[in-house]
Design goal:
CATH topology of the largest domain: TIM Barrel
CATH architecture of the largest domain: Alpha-Beta Barrel
Low-confidence stretches: 1-25
Shape: globular
Bound molecules: 2-acetamido-2-deoxy-beta-D-glucopyranose
Number of strands: 18
Distance between the termini: 79 Å
Radius of gyration: 25 Å
Mean pLDDT: 93
Amino acid sequence: MRGAMGDMGVVAVFLIFSLLRLSSAEISSKIGINYGTLGDNLPSPNRSVVHIQAMKAGRVKLYDANPEILQLLSGTKLQVYIMVPNNEISSIASNQTTADEWVINNVLPFYPDTMIRVLLVGNEVLSYYSDQDRQMWYDLVPAMHRIKNALKAQHINNIKVGTPLAMDIMQSSFPPSSGMFRHDLVDTVMVPLLQFLHDTKSFFFIDVYPYFPWSGNPSQISLDYALLKGNVRYMDPRNGLIYTNLLDQMLDSVIFAMTKLGFPGIRISISETGWPTAGDVEEPGANIRNAATYNRNLIQKITAKPAVGTPARPGVVIPTIIFSLYNENRKSGPGTERNWGLLRPDGTPVYDIDLTGKQNLLDYAPLPRARNNMPYRGQVWCVVARGADLMKLRPALAYACGEGNGTCDALKPGSECYEPVSVIRHASYAFSSYWARFRSQGATCYFNGLAVQTTRDPSRGSCKVPSVNL
Ligand SMILES: *[C@@H]1O[C@H](CO)[C@@H](O)[C@H](O)[C@H]1NC(C)=O
Ligand SMILES: *[C@@H]1O[C@H](CO)[C@@H](O)[C@H](O)[C@H]1NC(C)=O
Ligand SMILES: *[C@@H]1O[C@H](CO)[C@@H](O)[C@H](O)[C@H]1NC(C)=O
């Protein structure tokens, strides 16, 4: 018996070894692309799938389970990531039938012809902070369990279940060895999440953008370090690990945070990363030169054979998905939000990029000069964007003036900015005045795309348009 058990043990070990090899073979180092659709001028899903294939992406990540797109992806070689929207998490967490129905309605019609390989539950769930959102934090892992059970019930074993998180889950990330998750999340969310990812051999999906820490401290962090140029070195004083770029530093802080909670082995996958090609006046470093440099260096690093990994985990493949396919004009927030794309809305590339990593970096055509790597100092106004829809301008003007505090006193008949009576001039005044007054409370110069920042003073004669001083 003993002998037989021993042989069984050997067979079992061999089987497990083969399975591990199989499952790691599933995970290539091919670069993926995030396919966001928050634009009113984007190519059809049909054209988009053609673009994604022409770019030689290895995988594509959606922010939902759009049936038209999933149908178009069937028969392609693209690995597909789909997503349960945040607002469905709580009902799935509380009811297995709801989870089963989600899988039946969103996976079964397309699988396996569409190579769905990852099912993400929610998007950056832990980055929303209202009371209702906090309920969603606690429902996240239970929902992931239910979705996993629903897949098992359909005998689907090659779809990983995960959830992409943002770097604001970190309490501390510098130096990387000090990496720790936010105290308010550790026991309630992170430990159960890590247990789930460990037990199901899934990935820790992280949205990681060196652009944000750099643009917040451009005088303290080297731009080359953020752009993965490899010419700057930093040693973590606690363990002597040598870092040559900010991305590795951020990834390792997550690895150290997981290790401290007793999960040293969970694999990391980058669910979003990238660099914006344009943005507001107040956002330094958002330009084509930096974006091309970052993404090209990223691709070289991720697709290198043998795999590079990070200082804490050398040699390990990090499946990576670049953000994003298109510039998306309906995204709110700062100007960079609408400028992460590799393609313009008409499908032409914003800059050349080879997702396979085979093109030598020296063979690309020269890039335009970077003009905004230093933070801008001076006055900025918020005016009507070129091509803004005039029909939408009146309600936006009314909104800006309706927020009170004398925002539009100068526009009253007889006041200094009343003449000329033009919707565009009045709206430019109102947008600037509103932004100048309420920026400290979080107001942005956006107005659903009707407004842009400018360093050119729109004041005329006695009409002085309020500005923001950067
Ligand atoms: C997709 O594009 C192809 C080729 O351009 C065209 O023949 C087909 O009708 C399109 N399908 C849809 C659903 O638009
Ligand atoms: C779970 O959801 C199903 C279908 O939506 C519903 O019929 C059932 O009553 C729900 N069960 C509970 C316990 O709420
Ligand atoms: C209006 O401005 C004053 C002084 O700047 C400020 O104290 C007050 O809170 C503002 N009111 C609103 C509604 O923002």
